[in-house]
Design a protein that fits this description.
The protein is α/β, with parallel strands linked by helices and 160 residues long. The chain has two domains: 32 residues, no CATH class; 116 residues, Response regulator (Rossmann fold). It is 31% helix and 23% strand. It is built from five helices and ten strands. The strands form three sheets. Strands 7-6-8-9-10 form a five-stranded parallel beta sheet, with helices on both faces. It is globular, with a radius of gyration of 17 Å.
Length: 160
């Protein structure tokens, strides 16, 4: 129940100040934290859709379709996340990872339809913390952001 500037959780949970919202797709369970995210993808339609989804969840989102521009953006701004497409013309996601001077707390998630063990291994060695396989939906995108932000525990294994 929301009451004034305090959000109250069910018994045995905590009371949180109003700057934080408590929610999880259908029921109260974790603290939402607004994050600043850079989306790097050469596909303008996908890039714009991802930005719209992130903003709908009250995150700050910037976007570019060019890896060189993204390198400049991460040097000028401390992002919480960079969502990086692998396959792009001129400079790909590997090039970005090798050339970007990421801030210590910036986490990188790979977005790709070209999933290979070699690619995933390369990106992890260069600092990526996870990946999304295209196509993905809004729920999967937000779940990855929440998980890598420490906003929810790892998902429990699903029964076959």
């Amino acid at each position: 129940m929301i009451c004034g500037t305090i959000l109250l959780c069910p018994p045995n949970d905590i009371v949180i100040q109003a700057e934080q919202a408590i929610w999880q797709l259908g029921h109260v369970s974790f603290v939402e934290v607004q994050v600043h995210i850079l989306v790097l993808d050469d596909n303008a339609a996908l890039r714009n859709t991802v930005v719209e989804i992130l903003k709908a969840y009250d995150h700050n989102a910037d976007a570019t379709g060019d890896a060189r521009n993204a390198v400049k953006m991460v040097e000028a701004t401390e992002y919480d996340f960079v969502l990086v497409d692998y396959k792009m013309p001129i400079n790909d996601g590997i090039w970005f990872m090798k050339n970007a001077k990421l801030h210590r707390r910036t986490r990188v998630l790979l977005m790709t339809a070209h999933v290979t063990n070699d690619l995933i291994s390369q990106m992890f060695k260069l600092g990526a913390v996870g990946y999304l396989i295209k196509p993905f939906d809004a729920k999967e995108l937000i779940r990855h952001i929440e998980f890598h932000s420490g906003q929810q525990p790892p998902p429990s294994p699903q029964a076959p």
